Amino acid sequence: MKKTTGMDRATTRNWRPATQAVRGGTWRSEHGETSEAMFLTSGYTYDDAQTVADRFAGEAQGMTYSRLQNPTVAMLEERIALLEGAEACRAQATGMAAMTAALLCQLSAGDHCVAARAAFGSCRWLVDNLLPRFGIETTVVDSADTAQWEAAIKPNTKVFFFETPANPTLDIVDLKAVCAIAKAHGITSVVDNAFASPALQRPMEFGADVVAYSATKLMDGQGRVLAGAICGSEEWVLETLMPFQRNTGPTLSAFNAWVVHKGLETLSMRAHQHSRNAIELGEFMEARIVKAGGEMRHPGLPSHAAHALATAQMDATGPIFAFDVRTRERAFAMLDALELIDISNNIGDARSLMCHPASTTHAGLTDEARAEMGVTEGLLRINVGLEDIADIAEDMDRAMKAAGI
Question: What CATH number belongs to 2-266?
Fold first, then answer.
């Protein structure tokens, strides 16, 4: 295997993000292919017995089994680490595999985890249901209230876990302040950065220890494959994450890794155009939503309570915002009137997508948990795509009129 400078860390660390997104983590075979090759193999062969013994003992570099290493997956991991500014990255089978692994690899019975109450439905399920099943104590806090994080700390607190922006309420966490509290108490901060991606926000620049992703979202960006990733220090990845991953196997397929790897080449351009479209659509909608008694939750608009914080932490505020039209009937009327925008629970897609979280992404939570998070019956979440913004606005205008807005 011939490696280009795309795998030379001394060189790639000095490249600027746009170059890293296209060139970072590139391996080339003896054929000199321009597009990265896809290695669809479960295992590897060896020239002699000592070579395989040395590799399995960790005394020699090289592949052993695709549950642990695969050249295509390794290329993706290197590129994500470069974009994130992390020492290391391990790809995961899905975004939820990443969140689960990031928590379970470091929490044991008797430990305590503090988590944000506003979170993706499955992330709240991990905190509310899975962790307690293994004897791990959990506390949920209002993530936007920095003081609540410190107040929730106990002698056995090991992890802070949160999203910013949060799904689907668009709560914003003060990354620098919360991560500083964690560090002061020897707590590991785990940040779900799926709503932003490293193109728009890099939590490690604000002190985060671990950053986890659903790469299904903006990194792929076209609704094609499932994937996840976890970034951290090389020591944490090798000593804490790897034993869990090696023995539980949340492995990303080579094909899915290749698709996401190619998606990263255009991530920054897409994410910034998504953001511009989302702000323009939010500005078009806001006055009518508010006049009808509803509420906008758009961190890119000055009306958002944490607008200044969001714009300070993020290069742009992303493709996603939410708005509350107060009743399920109104929400469903809007969804049913859509012609261009698809009803779908995915995000980060090139297509505009809208969903009703209370009946989809957060349907598995209790009524009490949804109320605590602010996931009301009238809440709608939209992923603003890359279509012409005039067409998106026309479709939204039609939907609002159908709901009497």
Answer: 3.40.640.10
